[in-house]
Amino acid sequence: MNERHLRRVLASEGGGGGRGVDVEPDVALVRRWSRRTFGEYSRYWVDGARLPFVDEAGVRARFRFERGEEHLRSAVAQGQGVVLALPHVGSWEWGGAWLALEGAPMTAVVERLEPEQLFEWFVGQRAAMGLTAVPLGEGSGPALLRALKQGKVAGLISDRDLAGHGVEVEFFGERTTLPGGAATLALRTGAALLPAVVYSGPGNWHTGVVHPPLDTTRSGSLRADVARLTQEMARAFEEFIRRRPEQWHLYQANWPSDRAAP
Prior knowledge:
Structural class: alpha/beta
Number of helices: 10
Helix content: 40-55%
Order of helices and strands: HHHEHEHEHEHEEEHEEHH
Number of strands: 9
Strand order of the largest sheet: 1-9-8-2-5-3-4
């Protein structure tokens, strides 16, 4: 399945915003990129396990922004909360650790892991570094609303529609659905909506990139505005993923054609 996703990334037009297909990538090339994703995914878990034991000086020394730090600081300073829309790329927890040190702790919705003991360990480790991890479910919405009302940061991994009733978008040249939660929260609360990513590297560093805030000015019905913003979010994700396709940790079906494939 991962090879199907990477084929879309490698085939999508570099300057066309993912709205078409240029050249079908070579099978061997796709396979090489796919193998690299597993190495990067292993690094994600190793770095995440070590992160709670890295002191403040270590986090600051190994985290940097390539661009967009001003967008994040400006949004936090406004005091109305910040919604960070994130893809499954790199090591987003390093961004969460840095935010906690800056006095802007993040509440993030995460997929429940199996076995339960592993998930409890995961949540506890994140709490130790100032990151509140909330399992996806009925209680996740109120937790995010509380954080935003307090002017804090809400983080949502938004490149996979786990619930199956997301917003239809075009993503890497093919129609699919992505969760509309980030857009809905921003529209209903007045919080800033920022697509963002934290890449692993270079070396032992972790590199943040923050997209300019999406325009959450109401222009139609709530449904229409959520659809517009979710499509804009998908475009930002395409840009993030194209830069480091080997760091896209997505191994499940994500397009309708994936589920129909043998």
